[in-house]
Structures are given as structure tokens and as C-alpha cells.
Write a structure and sequence with these properties.
GO molecular function: 1-acylglycerol-3-phosphate O-acyltransferase activity
Pfam families: Acyltransferase
Distance between the termini: 36 Å
Radius of gyration: 17 Å
CATH class: Alpha Beta
Domain Phospholipid/glycerol acyltransferase: 52-164
CATH superfamily: Glycerol-3-phosphate (1)-acyltransferase
Largest sheet: 7 strands, mixed
Number of helices: 9
CATH topology: Glycerol-3-phosphate (1)-acyltransferase
Number of domains: 1
Keywords: Acyltransferase, Transferase
Strand order of the largest sheet: 1-7-6-2-5-3-4
Structural class: alpha/beta
CATH architecture: 3-Layer(aba) Sandwich
Strand content: 15-25%
Shape: globular
Organism: Humisphaera borealis
């Protein structure tokens, strides 16, 4: 799958966002890089412009903040609706264009919103496990990322993170200093092995899973 084709199909996008969203991202960079220790072991492989999907394993409620702090482009995160509906924080999620998702896996409105974000040239952030890990074993990935990536014809860039905040919910992880390690990998090739072959979402999902798993295996813990 070619990211060039996806970029040509996408509409121009002004990723600077509102003044509020820019202030929030700047504040998050200061918070994440001073209160927490983030060891970025490989550079981010997201394209400088154009649509893409960032996938990562999910170890705590703080993951989106930690990832956004080291990625220059703003990320449109897909997040569980129960977090999005916290009244005191909803304005924050709305300011950064977060997309609430029902956990039942049948949220077509969230899928449409995600495809619109990709169509406007944005980077979509997804945790394909669908819930927080409690051990260092990756949970099975849902096929939603593969479906959106192949439909929108955008690259999928994997990341793997590990840290002392594993298993913590958002508030606990926010107030507890964390030692986090992070690796990024190259875009995953989701093209069929044979030209003209029908895309198999399960095969594509396995490739995405394997790309994150390979980053886990190469994580340095010196």
C-alpha cells in the first residue's frame, strides 16, 4: 500500500488546530518530558505530511499523552467513550479532536469520524488491543485498524511502549512519575501478496500485530 497514493487522495489539512489545542499540546510536552522519563529508542516513522495510522500497545491511561509528547504532528486519538464522557475532561478531548468509541466494537459513527480524519490528511492514533494490558503479553488486535487503513489507503506505523505505569488508569498514571521506554517501527506493508488478490483483514491484522511484537522483542532495558 502506497502512502503516496493516500496523500494524493487526502484533502489539505491545517494541523495547527485551535489556540486551545496548541496550548494543550505544548503543556503536555512540558509535563511529559519533565515529570516523566521517556526513553525514545528509535525515531518516529510517521510521514511528515499526509494521512497515517499510528498503532501502539496499551499499558496505561496515560499512553496518548506520552506518545503525543514525542511526536511533532498532532494525533487524532480514538478513545473509549467512558473516558470521553468524563464531564470535567470532555472539553480537553473535544479540543484535540479525540474520537469516542463504544467498546462493543460496532461503533460505525466512530469509524466514519476516523475515516474523515484520514481523508483530511490527519494522523489517527489507535490502540488496537482495545483495553489496557496488565502483563507484558500483547493482547489480540482488533481488525478495525486494518479495515480503515485498507479502505483509506494509508500507511500504518507501529510503536511499542513499556513503563513503570503499566496497568494504571488515567488519574493514577498522571500523578505517578513513570519511567517509559518507546520504540517506533517502519510502516507495515498491507498489500496482498498477489496482485489483484482480495484483501484479508485477518492477515493484515496479523502483520500489524507482528510489527508491534517485533518492536517489543528489540526493546533495550539497559
Amino acid at each position: 500500500m502506497s502512502s503516496t497514493n493516500a496523500t494524493k487522495k487526502s484533502k489539505p489539512s491545517d494541523e495547527r488546530g485551535t489556540i486551545t489545542s496548541r496550548i494543550l499540546r505544548a503543556g503536555n510536552r512540558v509535563y511529559a518530558r519533565t515529570f516523566h522519563r521517556i526513553d525514545v529508542q528509535t525515531p518516529c516513522r510517521l510521514p511528515r505530511t499526509g494521512p497515517a495510522i499510528l498503532v501502539c500497545n496499551h499499558i496505561s491511561g496515560l499512553d496518548p499523552l506520552l506518545l503525543q509528547a514525542v511526536i511533532p504532528r498532532p494525533i487524532v486519538w480514538m478513545m473509549a467513550r467512558e473516558y470521553y464522557d468524563i464531564a470535567a475532561l470532555r472539553w480537553v478531548y473535544q479540543a484535540v479532536d479525540a474520537i469516542p468509541v463504544e467498546r462493543n466494537g460496532r461503533d460505525s459513527s466512530a469509524t466514519r469520524a476516523a475515516l474523515r480524519a484520514l481523508g483530511s490528511g490527519r494522523v489517527l492514533g489507535v490502540f488496537p488491543e482495545g483495553r489496557i494490558e496488565t502483563s507484558r503479553e500483547l493482547l489480540p488486535f482488533h481488525t478495525g485498524v486494518a479495515m480503515m487503513a485498507t479502505r483509506a489507503e494509508v500507511p500504518v506505523v507501529p510503536a511499542y511502549l513499556d513503563g513503570s505505569n503499566r496497568g494504571m488508569e488515567m488519574l493514577e498514571a498522571f500523578v505517578e512519575p513513570n519511567d517509559v521506554k518507546l520504540r517506533f517501527g517502519p510502516a507495515v506493508d498491507l498489500a496482498p501478496s498477489t496482485p489483484g488478490e482480495k484483501i484479508d483483514l485477518n492477515i493484515c491484522t496479523s502483520r500489524i500485530f507482528d510489527s508491534v511484537s517485533s518492536l517489543k522483542k528489540t526493546m533495550a532495558y539497559a
